[in-house]
């Protein structure tokens, strides 16, 4: 099904983060079909902890309504409740085929010498290409972010044949699936978010590797064998806090790759991981970094 934005109207407000949930509830009570949150003033949030949900200090909230909704009346109601200090406006949406535009913006990308991430509406004609089919989705990880790219390039550079790999914080499952496509005999994806588990399962089936991928929600107790490879792309704060757990998942002389950290956060993460890992090396990409090493 193709959706034209002329079928919808939207109301937008910019508020302080402490009012965001209240505004969202008001929009839903007025019949909003969907509510989105965006950064209104370029205030990036780089360090949420696992399970933590934080909003920007200035948050833009948009409610999407059907084209026949009484948007003008909704705006009057919101103004009456919120007063004049919070602007309430209708924002016009360009009439486009948004499904096609969304897909057209995601093109095949190569990582390393042979690994490609390719949307399902495209193909790769390169000889000996190893292709992971993946479309953008709810869970983070399509290869477009530098940290994901660094992890994919790392996996492409390794001999994964007949090895097992742990994707710690699997998100979309892209790293685990790439490892399996690159020759790993088995992979395990760990995540605290049930949506990530669902997305990883769906993407594994899309790539016909579901029989070799085990997915674990780490909010529940679990046991598993140590692996010769572990990749984690989950931001520097959680990486530091979870070092003991991450190290416990890696076999002696096993290989580790960590990303999700800014280049200026490298020294802090290195100081934590040098307790259990040797041969630590760093690669940088667009202000982000990847640390690799081997278990002592």
TrEMBL record:
Localization terms from the record: Cytoplasm
CC annotations in GO: cytosol; ribosome
One GO biological process term: methylation
Principal localisation: cytoplasm
Keywords associated with the record: Cytoplasm, Methyltransferase, Ribonucleoprotein, Ribosomal protein, S-adenosyl-L-methionine, Transferase
Example of a GO MF term: protein-lysine N-methyltransferase activity
Catalytic activity field: L-lysyl-[protein] + 3 S-adenosyl-L-methionine = N(6),N(6),N(6)-trimethyl-L-lysyl-[protein] + 3 S-adenosyl-L-homocysteine + 3 H(+)
Organism: Anaerobiospirillum thomasii
Group of enzyme by EC: transferase
SUPFAM superfamilies in UniProt: S-adenosyl-L-methionine-dependent methyltransferases
PANTHER family with a match to the protein in the record: ELECTRON TRANSFER FLAVOPROTEIN BETA SUBUNIT LYSINE METHYLTRANSFERASE
HAMAP family xrefs: Methyltr_PrmA (MF_00735)
Binding of S-adenosyl-L-methionine, residues: 148, 169, 191, 233
Protein name: Ribosomal protein L11 methyltransferase
EC number: 2.1.1.-
Membrane spanning residue stretches: none
Similarity field: Belongs to the methyltransferase superfamily. PrmA family.
Function: Methylates ribosomal protein L11.
């Amino acid at each position: 099904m193709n959706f034209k934005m002329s079928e919808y109207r939207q109301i937008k407000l910019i508020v302080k983060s402490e009012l965001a949930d209240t505004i969202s509830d008001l929009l839903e009570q007025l019949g909003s079909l969907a509510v989105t949150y965006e950064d209104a003033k370029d205030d990036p949030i780089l360090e949420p902890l696992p399970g933590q949900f934080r909003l920007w200090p200035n948050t833009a909230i948009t409610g999407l309504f059907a084209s026949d909704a009484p948007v003008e009346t909704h705006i009057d109601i919101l103004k009456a409740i919120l007063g004049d200090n919070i602007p309430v406006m209708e924002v016009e949406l360009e009439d486009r085929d948004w499904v096609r535009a969304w897909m057209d913006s995601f093109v095949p990308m190569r990582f390393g010498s042979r690994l490609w991430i390719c949307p399902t509406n495209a193909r790769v004609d390169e000889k000996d290409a190893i292709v992971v089919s993946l479309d953008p989705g709810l869970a983070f990880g399509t290869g477009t972010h530098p940290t994901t790219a660094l992890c994919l390039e790392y996996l492409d550079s390794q001999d994964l044949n007949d090895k097992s790999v742990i994707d710690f914080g699997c998100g979309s499952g892209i790293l685990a699936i790439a490892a399996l496509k690159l020759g790993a005999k088995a992979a395990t994806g760990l995540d605290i978010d049930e949506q990530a588990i669902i997305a990883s399962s769906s993407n594994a089936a899309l790539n016909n590797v579901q029989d070799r991928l085990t997915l674990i929600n780490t909010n529940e107790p679990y046991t598993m064998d140590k692996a010769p490879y572990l990749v984690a792309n989950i931001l520097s704060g959680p990486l530091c806090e979870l070092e003991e757990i991450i190290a416990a998942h890696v076999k002696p002389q096993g290989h580790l790759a960590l990303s999700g950290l800014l280049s200026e956060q490298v020294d802090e993460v290195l100081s934590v991981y040098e307790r259990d890992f040797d041969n630590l090396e760093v690669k940088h990409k667009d202000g982000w970094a990847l640390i690799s090493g081997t278990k002592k």
